[in-house]
From TrEMBL, chains A, B, C:
Its main location: membrane. This is Trimeric intracellular cation channel family protein. InterPro entries: Gly_transporter (IPR005115). It is a multi-pass membrane protein. Belongs to the UPF0126 family. Residues 5-79, 91-164 form the Glycine transporter domain. It comes from the Bacteria. It is found in: Cell membrane. It comes from Pseudonocardia humida. Keywords: Cell membrane, Membrane, Transmembrane, Transmembrane helix. The chain crosses the membrane at residues 31-50, 62-82, 94-127, 173-193.
Amino acid sequence: MLLTVLDLAGIAVFAASGALAGVAARLDLFGVVTVAVLTGLGGGVIRDVLLGLTPPTSLRRWPYLLAPVVVGLLVFAFHTWVTRLRRAIEWADAFGLALFATAGSGAALAAGAPGVTAVVVGLITAIGGGVIRDVLVGEVPQVLRREVYAVPALLGAAVVVVGHDMGLPPVPVAIGAAGLVLAVRIVAMLRGWNAPLPPAPRDRP
Amino acid sequence: MLLTVLDLAGIAVFAASGALAGVAARLDLFGVVTVAVLTGLGGGVIRDVLLGLTPPTSLRRWPYLLAPVVVGLLVFAFHTWVTRLRRAIEWADAFGLALFATAGSGAALAAGAPGVTAVVVGLITAIGGGVIRDVLVGEVPQVLRREVYAVPALLGAAVVVVGHDMGLPPVPVAIGAAGLVLAVRIVAMLRGWNAPLPPAPRDRP
Amino acid sequence: MLLTVLDLAGIAVFAASGALAGVAARLDLFGVVTVAVLTGLGGGVIRDVLLGLTPPTSLRRWPYLLAPVVVGLLVFAFHTWVTRLRRAIEWADAFGLALFATAGSGAALAAGAPGVTAVVVGLITAIGGGVIRDVLVGEVPQVLRREVYAVPALLGAAVVVVGHDMGLPPVPVAIGAAGLVLAVRIVAMLRGWNAPLPPAPRDRP
Protein backbone atom coordinates (compact mmCIF):
# COMPACT_ATOMS: atom_id res chain seq x y z
CA MET A 1 0.00 0.00 0.00
CA LEU A 2 2.70 2.47 1.06
CA LEU A 3 4.83 1.21 -1.83
CA THR A 4 2.03 1.89 -4.28
CA VAL A 5 1.60 5.43 -2.95
CA LEU A 6 5.35 6.07 -3.22
CA ASP A 7 5.35 4.57 -6.70
CA LEU A 8 2.49 6.81 -7.81
CA ALA A 9 4.24 9.82 -6.28
CA GLY A 10 7.40 9.07 -8.28
CA ILE A 11 5.36 8.62 -11.48
CA ALA A 12 3.53 11.89 -10.85
CA VAL A 13 6.74 13.85 -10.33
CA PHE A 14 8.35 12.48 -13.48
CA ALA A 15 5.10 13.09 -15.37
CA ALA A 16 5.21 16.74 -14.27
CA SER A 17 8.73 17.15 -15.66
CA GLY A 18 7.57 15.53 -18.92
CA ALA A 19 4.52 17.78 -19.20
CA LEU A 20 6.64 20.89 -18.56
CA ALA A 21 9.03 19.83 -21.33
CA GLY A 22 6.02 19.31 -23.61
CA VAL A 23 4.66 22.78 -22.86
CA ALA A 24 8.10 24.29 -23.50
CA ALA A 25 8.21 22.49 -26.87
CA ARG A 26 4.77 23.96 -27.75
CA LEU A 27 3.09 20.56 -27.99
CA ASP A 28 -0.70 20.44 -28.06
CA LEU A 29 -2.93 19.05 -25.31
CA PHE A 30 -2.56 15.46 -26.42
CA GLY A 31 1.19 15.84 -26.88
CA VAL A 32 1.69 17.26 -23.40
CA VAL A 33 -0.33 14.45 -21.81
CA THR A 34 1.45 11.78 -23.88
CA VAL A 35 4.91 13.04 -22.96
CA ALA A 36 3.76 13.15 -19.32
CA VAL A 37 2.61 9.52 -19.49
CA LEU A 38 5.72 8.28 -21.30
CA THR A 39 8.05 10.14 -18.93
CA GLY A 40 6.23 8.86 -15.88
CA LEU A 41 5.87 5.26 -17.00
CA GLY A 42 8.70 4.85 -19.53
CA GLY A 43 11.42 3.76 -17.12
CA GLY A 44 9.21 1.12 -15.54
CA VAL A 45 7.98 -0.19 -18.89
CA ILE A 46 11.54 -0.62 -20.20
CA ARG A 47 12.45 -2.32 -16.91
CA ASP A 48 9.64 -4.83 -17.24
CA VAL A 49 10.34 -5.53 -20.91
CA LEU A 50 14.04 -6.15 -20.14
CA LEU A 51 13.04 -8.52 -17.32
CA GLY A 52 10.46 -10.32 -19.45
CA LEU A 53 7.58 -9.22 -17.19
CA THR A 54 4.91 -8.60 -19.81
CA PRO A 55 2.55 -6.85 -20.06
CA PRO A 56 4.43 -4.26 -17.99
CA THR A 57 2.99 -3.68 -14.51
CA SER A 58 2.26 0.00 -15.06
CA LEU A 59 0.13 -0.80 -18.11
CA ARG A 60 -2.02 -3.21 -16.12
CA ARG A 61 -3.56 -0.90 -13.52
CA TRP A 62 -5.71 2.18 -13.98
CA PRO A 63 -4.12 4.33 -11.24
CA TYR A 64 -0.71 4.02 -12.90
CA LEU A 65 -2.14 5.43 -16.11
CA LEU A 66 -4.50 7.95 -14.57
CA ALA A 67 -1.85 9.56 -12.35
CA PRO A 68 0.35 10.86 -15.22
CA VAL A 69 -2.71 11.75 -17.33
CA VAL A 70 -4.12 13.91 -14.54
CA VAL A 71 -0.72 15.49 -13.90
CA GLY A 72 -0.35 16.20 -17.61
CA LEU A 73 -3.76 17.89 -17.76
CA LEU A 74 -3.03 19.98 -14.66
CA VAL A 75 0.36 21.10 -15.97
CA PHE A 76 -1.20 21.91 -19.34
CA ALA A 77 -3.87 24.09 -17.73
CA PHE A 78 -1.73 25.75 -15.06
CA HIS A 79 1.74 25.61 -16.58
CA THR A 80 2.58 29.23 -15.82
CA TRP A 81 2.17 28.49 -12.13
CA VAL A 82 3.88 25.13 -12.31
CA THR A 83 6.88 26.71 -13.97
CA ARG A 84 7.26 28.93 -10.94
CA LEU A 85 7.33 25.73 -8.89
CA ARG A 86 10.26 24.43 -10.91
CA ARG A 87 12.54 24.46 -7.91
CA ALA A 88 10.07 22.39 -5.90
CA ILE A 89 9.76 19.98 -8.80
CA GLU A 90 13.53 19.53 -8.89
CA TRP A 91 13.43 18.44 -5.27
CA ALA A 92 10.53 16.11 -5.90
CA ASP A 93 12.36 14.77 -8.95
CA ALA A 94 15.29 13.81 -6.71
CA PHE A 95 12.78 11.86 -4.64
CA GLY A 96 11.46 10.11 -7.77
CA LEU A 97 15.01 9.29 -8.84
CA ALA A 98 15.73 7.69 -5.46
CA LEU A 99 12.53 5.70 -5.52
CA PHE A 100 12.85 4.42 -9.08
CA ALA A 101 16.51 3.44 -8.78
CA THR A 102 15.97 1.35 -5.66
CA ALA A 103 12.59 -0.06 -6.69
CA GLY A 104 13.94 -0.88 -10.17
CA SER A 105 16.91 -2.87 -8.91
CA GLY A 106 14.72 -4.52 -6.29
CA ALA A 107 12.22 -5.60 -8.95
CA ALA A 108 15.06 -7.09 -10.99
CA LEU A 109 16.36 -9.09 -8.02
CA ALA A 110 12.82 -10.23 -7.22
CA ALA A 111 12.51 -11.46 -10.82
CA GLY A 112 15.61 -13.60 -10.28
CA ALA A 113 18.01 -11.47 -12.33
CA PRO A 114 21.73 -11.53 -11.44
CA GLY A 115 23.26 -8.59 -9.57
CA VAL A 116 24.84 -6.94 -12.58
CA THR A 117 21.49 -6.93 -14.35
CA ALA A 118 19.80 -5.46 -11.28
CA VAL A 119 22.24 -2.54 -11.13
CA VAL A 120 21.77 -1.69 -14.81
CA VAL A 121 18.01 -2.16 -14.67
CA GLY A 122 17.77 0.09 -11.61
CA LEU A 123 19.68 2.81 -13.45
CA ILE A 124 17.55 2.43 -16.58
CA THR A 125 14.34 2.56 -14.54
CA ALA A 126 15.48 5.81 -12.94
CA ILE A 127 16.68 7.66 -16.04
CA GLY A 128 14.70 5.98 -18.87
CA GLY A 129 11.64 8.21 -18.58
CA GLY A 130 13.72 11.36 -18.80
CA VAL A 131 15.60 10.10 -21.85
CA ILE A 132 12.30 9.33 -23.63
CA ARG A 133 11.01 12.80 -22.67
CA ASP A 134 14.01 14.59 -24.17
CA VAL A 135 14.14 12.48 -27.36
CA LEU A 136 10.42 13.11 -27.98
CA VAL A 137 10.80 16.89 -27.73
CA GLY A 138 13.88 16.80 -29.95
CA GLU A 139 16.63 17.42 -27.41
CA VAL A 140 19.78 15.57 -26.46
CA PRO A 141 18.90 13.87 -23.15
CA GLN A 142 19.72 16.13 -20.20
CA VAL A 143 21.14 13.22 -18.24
CA LEU A 144 23.90 12.94 -20.86
CA ARG A 145 24.75 16.61 -20.85
CA ARG A 146 24.88 18.06 -17.41
CA GLU A 147 24.69 17.72 -13.67
CA VAL A 148 25.33 14.78 -11.45
CA TYR A 149 22.09 12.89 -12.00
CA ALA A 150 22.73 9.32 -13.05
CA VAL A 151 25.60 8.70 -10.65
CA PRO A 152 23.44 8.79 -7.48
CA ALA A 153 20.91 6.47 -9.16
CA LEU A 154 23.74 4.07 -10.03
CA LEU A 155 25.02 4.19 -6.45
CA GLY A 156 21.57 3.49 -5.02
CA ALA A 157 20.98 0.53 -7.32
CA ALA A 158 24.41 -0.85 -6.42
CA VAL A 159 23.69 -0.57 -2.69
CA VAL A 160 20.46 -2.55 -3.12
CA VAL A 161 22.34 -5.32 -4.93
CA VAL A 162 25.24 -5.43 -2.46
CA GLY A 163 22.79 -5.56 0.43
CA HIS A 164 20.95 -8.41 -1.26
CA ASP A 165 24.19 -10.32 -1.89
CA MET A 166 25.15 -9.86 1.77
CA GLY A 167 21.79 -11.27 2.86
CA LEU A 168 20.70 -8.07 4.62
CA PRO A 169 16.96 -7.46 5.09
CA PRO A 170 15.64 -5.74 1.94
CA VAL A 171 13.46 -2.99 3.42
CA PRO A 172 16.12 -1.21 5.53
CA VAL A 173 18.61 -1.61 2.68
CA ALA A 174 16.14 -0.04 0.24
CA ILE A 175 15.49 2.86 2.60
CA GLY A 176 19.22 3.40 3.10
CA ALA A 177 19.86 3.20 -0.64
CA ALA A 178 17.07 5.67 -1.40
CA GLY A 179 18.43 8.00 1.27
CA LEU A 180 21.87 7.82 -0.34
CA VAL A 181 20.45 8.69 -3.78
CA LEU A 182 18.52 11.61 -2.32
CA ALA A 183 21.50 12.92 -0.37
CA VAL A 184 23.97 12.78 -3.27
CA ARG A 185 21.48 14.25 -5.72
CA ILE A 186 20.46 17.09 -3.41
CA VAL A 187 24.05 17.99 -2.54
CA ALA A 188 24.85 17.96 -6.28
CA MET A 189 21.89 20.29 -6.91
CA LEU A 190 22.76 22.68 -4.09
CA ARG A 191 26.44 22.86 -5.02
CA GLY A 192 25.76 22.99 -8.76
CA TRP A 193 28.00 20.00 -9.39
CA ASN A 194 28.47 19.08 -13.02
CA ALA A 195 30.15 16.06 -14.53
CA PRO A 196 33.41 16.93 -16.31
CA LEU A 197 33.41 17.77 -20.02
CA PRO A 198 35.86 16.17 -22.46
CA PRO A 199 39.34 17.72 -22.38
CA ALA A 200 39.76 20.29 -25.14
CA PRO A 201 42.28 19.60 -27.92
CA ARG A 202 45.62 21.09 -27.00
CA ASP A 203 46.68 24.23 -28.85
CA ARG A 204 49.27 23.84 -31.49
CA PRO A 205 52.00 26.31 -32.26
CA MET B 1 -7.45 -14.16 -44.97
CA LEU B 2 -9.43 -10.91 -45.14
CA LEU B 3 -7.73 -9.84 -41.90
CA THR B 4 -4.30 -10.46 -43.41
CA VAL B 5 -5.18 -8.38 -46.46
CA LEU B 6 -6.46 -5.54 -44.27
CA ASP B 7 -3.36 -5.82 -42.10
CA LEU B 8 -1.06 -5.63 -45.12
CA ALA B 9 -3.03 -2.66 -46.45
CA GLY B 10 -2.55 -0.82 -43.15
CA ILE B 11 1.18 -1.63 -43.14
CA ALA B 12 1.51 -0.44 -46.74
CA VAL B 13 -0.20 2.88 -46.04
CA PHE B 14 1.92 3.60 -43.00
CA ALA B 15 5.03 2.52 -44.94
CA ALA B 16 4.15 5.06 -47.63
CA SER B 17 3.97 7.87 -45.07
CA GLY B 18 7.34 6.73 -43.68
CA ALA B 19 8.95 6.62 -47.12
CA LEU B 20 7.64 10.10 -47.95
CA ALA B 21 9.11 11.43 -44.69
CA GLY B 22 12.41 9.75 -45.61
CA VAL B 23 12.45 11.34 -49.06
CA ALA B 24 11.67 14.74 -47.52
CA ALA B 25 14.61 14.27 -45.14
CA ARG B 26 16.88 13.48 -48.13
CA LEU B 27 17.66 9.96 -46.94
CA ASP B 28 19.28 7.55 -49.39
CA LEU B 29 17.64 4.48 -50.90
CA PHE B 30 18.32 2.25 -47.93
CA GLY B 31 17.22 4.96 -45.50
CA VAL B 32 13.91 5.50 -47.27
CA VAL B 33 13.17 1.76 -47.31
CA THR B 34 14.20 1.35 -43.67
CA VAL B 35 11.99 4.19 -42.47
CA ALA B 36 9.15 2.70 -44.55
CA VAL B 37 9.61 -0.70 -42.89
CA LEU B 38 9.92 0.70 -39.36
CA THR B 39 6.89 2.98 -39.81
CA GLY B 40 4.81 0.14 -41.24
CA LEU B 41 5.81 -2.51 -38.72
CA GLY B 42 6.92 -0.47 -35.68
CA GLY B 43 3.56 -0.20 -33.97
CA GLY B 44 2.92 -3.93 -34.25
CA VAL B 45 6.40 -4.86 -33.08
CA ILE B 46 6.11 -2.68 -29.96
CA ARG B 47 2.64 -4.19 -29.35
CA ASP B 48 4.00 -7.75 -29.48
CA VAL B 49 7.01 -6.95 -27.28
CA LEU B 50 4.77 -5.35 -24.66
CA LEU B 51 2.50 -8.40 -24.73
CA GLY B 52 5.43 -10.83 -24.57
CA LEU B 53 4.61 -12.30 -27.99
CA THR B 54 8.14 -12.84 -29.31
CA PRO B 55 9.42 -12.92 -31.97
CA PRO B 56 6.87 -10.29 -33.11
CA THR B 57 4.33 -11.58 -35.64
CA SER B 58 5.29 -9.13 -38.36
CA LEU B 59 8.91 -10.31 -38.24
CA ARG B 60 7.87 -13.92 -38.80
CA ARG B 61 6.25 -13.76 -42.22
CA TRP B 62 7.71 -12.67 -45.54
CA PRO B 63 4.68 -10.72 -46.79
CA TYR B 64 4.74 -8.46 -43.74
CA LEU B 65 8.32 -7.51 -44.54
CA LEU B 66 8.01 -7.43 -48.30
CA ALA B 67 4.98 -5.11 -48.33
CA PRO B 68 6.73 -2.11 -46.73
CA VAL B 69 9.97 -2.81 -48.66
CA VAL B 70 8.11 -2.71 -51.99
CA VAL B 71 6.18 0.40 -50.94
CA GLY B 72 9.45 2.06 -49.90
CA LEU B 73 11.07 1.27 -53.26
CA LEU B 74 8.05 2.55 -55.19
CA VAL B 75 7.88 5.78 -53.19
CA PHE B 76 11.64 6.25 -53.65
CA ALA B 77 11.38 5.87 -57.42
CA PHE B 78 8.15 7.78 -57.98
CA HIS B 79 8.08 10.17 -55.03
CA THR B 80 7.24 13.22 -57.11
CA TRP B 81 4.02 11.54 -58.14
CA VAL B 82 3.30 10.10 -54.72
CA THR B 83 3.65 13.54 -53.18
CA ARG B 84 0.82 14.71 -55.40
CA LEU B 85 -1.22 11.85 -53.95
CA ARG B 86 -0.65 13.15 -50.43
CA ARG B 87 -4.33 13.87 -49.93
CA ALA B 88 -5.23 10.32 -50.91
CA ILE B 89 -2.57 9.01 -48.56
CA GLU B 90 -4.06 10.98 -45.68
CA TRP B 91 -7.37 9.23 -46.27
CA ALA B 92 -5.69 5.86 -46.49
CA ASP B 93 -3.73 6.70 -43.34
CA ALA B 94 -7.03 7.24 -41.49
CA PHE B 95 -7.97 3.74 -42.61
CA GLY B 96 -4.66 2.35 -41.28
CA LEU B 97 -5.20 4.16 -37.99
CA ALA B 98 -8.64 2.60 -37.60
CA LEU B 99 -7.35 -0.86 -38.44
CA PHE B 100 -4.30 -0.77 -36.17
CA ALA B 101 -6.13 0.67 -33.15
CA THR B 102 -8.85 -1.99 -33.22
CA ALA B 103 -6.56 -4.87 -34.21
CA GLY B 104 -4.02 -3.84 -31.57
CA SER B 105 -6.48 -3.81 -28.70
CA GLY B 106 -8.05 -7.03 -30.01
CA ALA B 107 -4.63 -8.73 -30.05
CA ALA B 108 -4.00 -7.61 -26.48
CA LEU B 109 -7.35 -9.04 -25.30
CA ALA B 110 -6.65 -12.26 -27.19
CA ALA B 111 -3.32 -12.52 -25.37
CA GLY B 112 -5.19 -12.37 -22.07
CA ALA B 113 -4.23 -8.80 -21.15
CA PRO B 114 -6.58 -6.77 -18.92
CA GLY B 115 -8.78 -4.08 -20.44
CA VAL B 116 -6.63 -1.14 -19.44
CA THR B 117 -3.62 -2.76 -21.11
CA ALA B 118 -5.64 -3.41 -24.25
CA VAL B 119 -6.66 0.24 -24.57
CA VAL B 120 -3.08 1.47 -24.19
CA VAL B 121 -1.67 -1.22 -26.47
CA GLY B 122 -4.27 -0.39 -29.15
CA LEU B 123 -3.25 3.26 -29.02
CA ILE B 124 0.46 2.41 -29.13
CA THR B 125 -0.05 0.06 -32.08
CA ALA B 126 -1.83 2.81 -33.98
CA ILE B 127 0.59 5.69 -33.34
CA GLY B 128 3.89 3.89 -32.61
CA GLY B 129 5.00 3.63 -36.22
CA GLY B 130 4.48 7.34 -36.84
CA VAL B 131 6.42 8.27 -33.70
CA ILE B 132 9.37 6.10 -34.82
CA ARG B 133 9.19 7.70 -38.28
CA ASP B 134 9.40 11.22 -36.93
CA VAL B 135 12.14 10.50 -34.38
CA LEU B 136 14.28 8.84 -37.09
CA VAL B 137 14.07 11.86 -39.41
CA GLY B 138 14.81 14.21 -36.52
CA GLU B 139 11.38 15.74 -35.94
CA VAL B 140 9.14 16.05 -32.92
CA PRO B 141 6.42 13.42 -33.51
CA GLN B 142 3.49 14.92 -35.44
CA VAL B 143 0.99 13.12 -33.23
CA LEU B 144 2.23 15.23 -30.30
CA ARG B 145 2.03 18.52 -32.12
CA ARG B 146 -1.08 18.89 -34.14
CA GLU B 147 -4.39 17.61 -35.32
CA VAL B 148 -6.81 15.25 -33.74
CA TYR B 149 -5.08 11.97 -34.51
CA ALA B 150 -4.54 9.94 -31.37
CA VAL B 151 -7.95 10.65 -29.85
CA PRO B 152 -9.93 8.62 -32.45
CA ALA B 153 -7.47 5.74 -32.04
CA LEU B 154 -7.96 5.86 -28.28
CA LEU B 155 -11.75 5.88 -28.72
CA GLY B 156 -11.64 2.89 -31.06
CA ALA B 157 -9.44 0.86 -28.73
CA ALA B 158 -11.76 1.70 -25.82
CA VAL B 159 -14.83 0.57 -27.78
CA VAL B 160 -13.20 -2.79 -28.51
CA VAL B 161 -12.46 -3.29 -24.80
CA VAL B 162 -15.90 -2.20 -23.60
CA GLY B 163 -17.54 -4.49 -26.17
CA HIS B 164 -15.36 -7.35 -24.96
CA ASP B 165 -16.23 -6.66 -21.30
CA MET B 166 -19.93 -6.63 -22.20
CA GLY B 167 -19.58 -10.01 -23.92
CA LEU B 168 -20.57 -8.67 -27.35
CA PRO B 169 -19.43 -10.61 -30.44
CA PRO B 170 -15.93 -9.36 -31.37
CA VAL B 171 -16.24 -8.98 -35.15
CA PRO B 172 -19.17 -6.52 -35.24
CA VAL B 173 -17.64 -4.62 -32.33
CA ALA B 174 -14.33 -4.35 -34.19
CA ILE B 175 -16.09 -3.13 -37.34
CA GLY B 176 -18.03 -0.57 -35.35
CA ALA B 177 -14.92 0.57 -33.51
CA ALA B 178 -12.96 0.91 -36.75
CA GLY B 179 -15.84 2.87 -38.28
CA LEU B 180 -15.82 5.22 -35.29
CA VAL B 181 -12.07 5.83 -35.64
CA LEU B 182 -12.46 6.49 -39.36
CA ALA B 183 -15.39 8.83 -38.87
CA VAL B 184 -13.79 10.94 -36.13
CA ARG B 185 -10.46 11.11 -37.94
CA ILE B 186 -11.99 12.08 -41.27
CA VAL B 187 -14.23 14.74 -39.73
CA ALA B 188 -11.16 16.11 -37.91
CA MET B 189 -9.25 16.20 -41.22
CA LEU B 190 -12.05 17.86 -43.17
CA ARG B 191 -12.73 20.47 -40.49
CA GLY B 192 -9.04 21.05 -39.77
CA TRP B 193 -9.53 20.32 -36.07
CA ASN B 194 -6.47 20.78 -33.91
CA ALA B 195 -5.97 19.88 -30.30
CA PRO B 196 -5.66 22.96 -28.08
CA LEU B 197 -2.24 24.47 -27.35
CA PRO B 198 -1.13 25.36 -23.82
CA PRO B 199 -2.61 28.64 -22.54
CA ALA B 200 -0.18 31.51 -22.98
CA PRO B 201 1.20 33.20 -19.88
CA ARG B 202 -1.05 36.07 -18.92
CA ASP B 203 0.24 39.58 -19.52
CA ARG B 204 1.21 41.51 -16.48
CA PRO B 205 0.61 45.18 -15.96
CA MET C 1 35.85 -18.57 -25.53
CA LEU C 2 36.93 -17.29 -28.94
CA LEU C 3 33.34 -16.23 -29.57
CA THR C 4 33.28 -14.22 -26.34
CA VAL C 5 36.52 -12.47 -27.27
CA LEU C 6 35.19 -11.64 -30.73
CA ASP C 7 31.93 -10.46 -29.18
CA LEU C 8 33.73 -8.19 -26.74
CA ALA C 9 35.90 -6.83 -29.57
CA GLY C 10 32.78 -5.93 -31.56
CA ILE C 11 31.21 -4.27 -28.52
CA ALA C 12 34.41 -2.31 -27.86
CA VAL C 13 34.61 -1.02 -31.42
CA PHE C 14 30.99 0.09 -31.49
CA ALA C 15 31.44 1.64 -28.03
CA ALA C 16 34.36 3.68 -29.39
CA SER C 17 32.23 5.06 -32.20
CA GLY C 18 29.53 5.94 -29.66
CA ALA C 19 31.98 7.66 -27.34
CA LEU C 20 33.45 9.69 -30.22
CA ALA C 21 29.94 10.80 -31.20
CA GLY C 22 29.33 11.78 -27.56
CA VAL C 23 32.52 13.83 -27.43
CA ALA C 24 31.60 15.54 -30.70
CA ALA C 25 28.18 16.42 -29.21
CA ARG C 26 29.93 17.94 -26.14
CA LEU C 27 28.37 15.49 -23.71
CA ASP C 28 29.81 15.25 -20.22
CA LEU C 29 31.74 12.29 -18.80
CA PHE C 30 28.64 10.32 -17.89
CA GLY C 31 27.01 11.09 -21.22
CA VAL C 32 30.01 9.90 -23.21
CA VAL C 33 30.18 6.65 -21.24
CA THR C 34 26.42 6.09 -21.50
CA VAL C 35 26.37 6.58 -25.26
CA ALA C 36 29.37 4.22 -25.49
CA VAL C 37 27.52 1.55 -23.51
CA LEU C 38 24.25 1.94 -25.42
CA THR C 39 26.01 1.90 -28.80
CA GLY C 40 28.05 -1.16 -27.87
CA LEU C 41 25.22 -3.15 -26.30
CA GLY C 42 22.09 -1.67 -27.91
CA GLY C 43 21.94 -3.93 -30.94
CA GLY C 44 22.29 -7.07 -28.84
CA VAL C 45 19.74 -5.92 -26.26
CA ILE C 46 17.13 -5.21 -28.95
CA ARG C 47 17.92 -8.61 -30.51
CA ASP C 48 17.33 -10.42 -27.21
CA VAL C 49 14.13 -8.51 -26.44
CA LEU C 50 12.75 -9.31 -29.91
CA LEU C 51 13.61 -12.98 -29.41
CA GLY C 52 12.14 -13.08 -25.90
CA LEU C 53 15.52 -13.85 -24.32
CA THR C 54 15.24 -11.78 -21.15
CA PRO C 55 17.12 -10.42 -19.32
CA PRO C 56 19.33 -9.73 -22.37
CA THR C 57 22.63 -11.63 -22.41
CA SER C 58 24.81 -8.56 -22.43
CA LEU C 59 23.16 -7.25 -19.25
CA ARG C 60 23.92 -10.48 -17.40
CA ARG C 61 27.70 -10.51 -17.44
CA TRP C 62 30.17 -7.99 -16.05
CA PRO C 63 32.66 -8.09 -18.96
CA TYR C 64 29.96 -7.09 -21.43
CA LEU C 65 29.24 -3.97 -19.37
CA LEU C 66 32.81 -3.19 -18.35
CA ALA C 67 34.18 -3.30 -21.90
CA PRO C 68 32.15 -0.35 -23.24
CA VAL C 69 32.53 1.56 -19.95
CA VAL C 70 36.33 1.30 -20.14
CA VAL C 71 36.31 2.21 -23.83
CA GLY C 72 34.10 5.21 -23.07
CA LEU C 73 36.45 6.42 -20.33
CA LEU C 74 39.51 6.00 -22.55
CA VAL C 75 37.92 7.85 -25.46
CA PHE C 76 36.79 10.61 -23.08
CA ALA C 77 40.31 11.07 -21.75
CA PHE C 78 42.24 10.67 -24.99
CA HIS C 79 39.70 11.71 -27.60
CA THR C 80 42.07 14.00 -29.47
CA TRP C 81 44.29 11.00 -30.21
CA VAL C 82 41.41 8.66 -30.89
CA THR C 83 40.00 11.07 -33.43
CA ARG C 84 43.23 10.76 -35.37
CA LEU C 85 42.63 7.01 -35.36
CA ARG C 86 39.25 7.49 -37.01
CA ARG C 87 40.35 5.64 -40.13
CA ALA C 88 41.45 2.66 -38.04
CA ILE C 89 38.16 2.75 -36.20
CA GLU C 90 36.24 2.62 -39.48
CA TRP C 91 38.07 -0.57 -40.36
CA ALA C 92 37.42 -2.03 -36.94
CA ASP C 93 33.80 -0.97 -37.23
CA ALA C 94 33.49 -3.02 -40.43
CA PHE C 95 34.73 -5.96 -38.40
CA GLY C 96 32.10 -5.29 -35.70
CA LEU C 97 29.41 -5.05 -38.37
CA ALA C 98 30.42 -8.44 -39.80
CA LEU C 99 30.49 -10.05 -36.38
CA PHE C 100 27.17 -8.65 -35.14
CA ALA C 101 25.24 -9.42 -38.34
CA THR C 102 26.29 -13.07 -38.40
CA ALA C 103 26.13 -13.60 -34.64
CA GLY C 104 22.72 -11.89 -34.49
CA SER C 105 21.13 -14.06 -37.14
CA GLY C 106 22.81 -17.13 -35.64
CA ALA C 107 21.38 -16.32 -32.21
CA ALA C 108 17.91 -15.95 -33.73
CA LEU C 109 18.15 -19.35 -35.45
CA ALA C 110 19.45 -20.89 -32.23
CA ALA C 111 16.41 -19.48 -30.43
CA GLY C 112 14.19 -21.30 -32.90
CA ALA C 113 13.12 -18.26 -34.90
CA PRO C 114 12.15 -18.71 -38.57
CA GLY C 115 14.57 -17.66 -41.31
CA VAL C 116 12.90 -14.36 -42.13
CA THR C 117 13.10 -13.34 -38.48
CA ALA C 118 16.77 -14.32 -38.33
CA VAL C 119 17.64 -12.11 -41.31
CA VAL C 120 15.87 -9.09 -39.83
CA VAL C 121 17.24 -9.71 -36.34
CA GLY C 122 20.78 -10.03 -37.73
CA LEU C 123 20.41 -6.69 -39.48
CA ILE C 124 18.94 -5.03 -36.39
CA THR C 125 21.73 -6.41 -34.19
CA ALA C 126 24.32 -4.95 -36.56
CA ILE C 127 22.87 -1.48 -37.03
CA GLY C 128 20.76 -0.99 -33.87
CA GLY C 129 23.57 0.39 -31.71
CA GLY C 130 24.50 3.00 -34.30
CA VAL C 131 20.90 4.13 -34.66
CA ILE C 132 20.60 4.57 -30.88
CA ARG C 133 23.91 6.50 -30.87
CA ASP C 134 22.75 8.95 -33.51
CA VAL C 135 19.26 9.47 -32.04
CA LEU C 136 20.76 10.19 -28.60
CA VAL C 137 23.10 12.89 -29.93
CA GLY C 138 20.26 14.43 -31.96
CA GLU C 139 21.22 13.34 -35.47
CA VAL C 140 19.41 11.47 -38.21
CA PRO C 141 20.97 7.97 -38.13
CA GLN C 142 23.99 7.77 -40.43
CA VAL C 143 22.94 4.35 -41.68
CA LEU C 144 19.87 5.98 -43.23
CA ARG C 145 21.74 8.77 -44.90
CA ARG C 146 24.89 7.63 -46.55
CA GLU C 147 27.28 4.92 -47.56
CA VAL C 148 26.72 1.26 -48.18
CA TYR C 149 26.55 0.06 -44.58
CA ALA C 150 23.39 -1.90 -43.95
CA VAL C 151 23.45 -3.82 -47.23
CA PRO C 152 26.53 -5.93 -46.37
CA ALA C 153 24.99 -6.68 -42.95
CA LEU C 154 21.79 -7.79 -44.63
CA LEU C 155 23.75 -9.99 -47.05
CA GLY C 156 25.70 -11.61 -44.23
CA ALA C 157 22.58 -12.35 -42.20
CA ALA C 158 20.93 -13.84 -45.29
CA VAL C 159 23.92 -16.11 -45.98
CA VAL C 160 23.76 -17.47 -42.42
CA VAL C 161 20.06 -18.28 -42.84
CA VAL C 162 20.45 -19.85 -46.30
CA GLY C 163 23.34 -21.96 -45.01
CA HIS C 164 21.20 -23.07 -42.09
CA ASP C 165 18.26 -23.95 -44.38
CA MET C 166 20.60 -25.98 -46.60
CA GLY C 167 21.87 -27.89 -43.57
CA LEU C 168 25.46 -26.68 -43.94
CA PRO C 169 27.71 -26.71 -40.86
CA PRO C 170 27.19 -23.40 -38.99
CA VAL C 171 30.77 -22.40 -38.17
CA PRO C 172 32.18 -22.33 -41.72
CA VAL C 173 28.98 -20.65 -42.92
CA ALA C 174 29.32 -17.97 -40.23
CA ILE C 175 32.97 -17.38 -41.15
CA GLY C 176 32.08 -17.11 -44.81
CA ALA C 177 29.17 -14.79 -44.08
CA ALA C 178 31.33 -12.55 -41.88
CA GLY C 179 34.00 -12.49 -44.60
CA LEU C 180 31.38 -11.42 -47.14
CA VAL C 181 30.19 -8.58 -44.90
CA LEU C 182 33.76 -7.43 -44.33
CA ALA C 183 34.63 -7.59 -48.03
CA VAL C 184 31.58 -5.67 -49.25
CA ARG C 185 31.84 -3.07 -46.50
CA ILE C 186 35.57 -2.49 -47.04
CA VAL C 187 35.21 -2.22 -50.81
CA ALA C 188 32.35 0.26 -50.25
CA MET C 189 34.58 2.28 -47.92
CA LEU C 190 37.58 2.28 -50.25
CA ARG C 191 35.54 3.18 -53.32
CA GLY C 192 33.39 5.71 -51.45
CA TRP C 193 30.19 3.97 -52.55
CA ASN C 194 27.01 5.69 -51.53
CA ALA C 195 23.47 4.43 -51.81
CA PRO C 196 21.46 6.41 -54.37
CA LEU C 197 19.48 9.47 -53.32
CA PRO C 198 15.84 9.98 -54.33
CA PRO C 199 15.44 11.23 -57.90
CA ALA C 200 15.00 15.00 -57.99
CA PRO C 201 11.70 16.39 -59.26
CA ARG C 202 11.94 16.99 -62.98
CA ASP C 203 12.22 20.56 -64.18
CA ARG C 204 9.17 22.00 -65.79
CA PRO C 205 9.14 24.44 -68.66
